């Protein structure tokens, strides 16, 4: 139910696709996958315990959400989280960049 990337795991991973894991309750980055540049998510429901550790991915450039089910609250939370890390990764929704405020308020 948890997908955790602990320290020293996957040191060369550059792209991760999490696709249709209906029972995932937590996705967390705890120092693992330090070279991750692109995170692609297709979630069927909001992870109950959340998505954590985006700030521990120093090389992350993009987070993309895709699929026939979009959970607006998950996308909005990711946009908010991606404002803070030094690298400020872009958030996309099916290849369309999410503007930090205007896209979510409409």
Q: What does the model show?
A:
With 106 residues, the chain is α/β, with parallel strands linked by helices. It contains two helices and eight strands. A five-stranded mixed β-sheet has the order 2-4-6-7-8, with helices on one face. A three-stranded parallel β-sheet has the order 1-3-5, with no helix packed on it. It is globular and about 35 Å long.
Chart the SSEs and their pairings:
Elements: E1 2-6, E2 15-19, E3 26-30, E4 38-42, E5 50-52, E6 62-65, H1 72-81, E7 90-93, E8 96-97, H2 102-105
- Give the topology string: H per helix, E per strand: EEEEEEHEEH
On the 0-100 scale, what is the average pLDDT? 85
Please count the helical segments.
Answer: 2
Main pleated sheet: 5 strands, mixed
- First-last Cα distance: 33 Å
What is the rounded Rg?
13 Å
Considering DSSP H and I runs of 4 or more, what fraction of the residues is helical? 10-25%
Number of strands: 8
What percentage of amino acids are in beta strands?
Answer: 25-35%
Question: What is the gist of this entry?
Answer:
With 106 residues, this protein is α/β, with parallel strands linked by helices. It contains 2 helices and 8 strands; from the N terminus they run E-E-E-E-E-E-H-E-E-H.
Distinctive features:
106 residues; alpha/beta; three-stranded parallel β-sheet; 8 strands; globular; disordered C terminus
């Amino acid at each position: 139910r948890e997908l955790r990337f602990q320290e020293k795991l996957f040191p060369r991973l550059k792209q991760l696709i999490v696709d249709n894991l209906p029972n995932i309750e937590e996705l967390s980055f705890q120092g693992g996958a330090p070279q991750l540049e692109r995170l692609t998510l297709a979630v069927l429901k909001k992870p109950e315990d959340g998505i954590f550790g985006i700030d521990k991915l120093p090389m992350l450039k993009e987070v993309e959400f895709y699929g026939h089910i979009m959970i607006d609250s998950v996308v909005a939370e990711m946009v908010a989280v991606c404002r803070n890390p030094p690298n400020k990764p872009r958030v996309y929704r099916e290849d369309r960049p999410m503007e930090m405020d205007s896209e979510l308020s409409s």
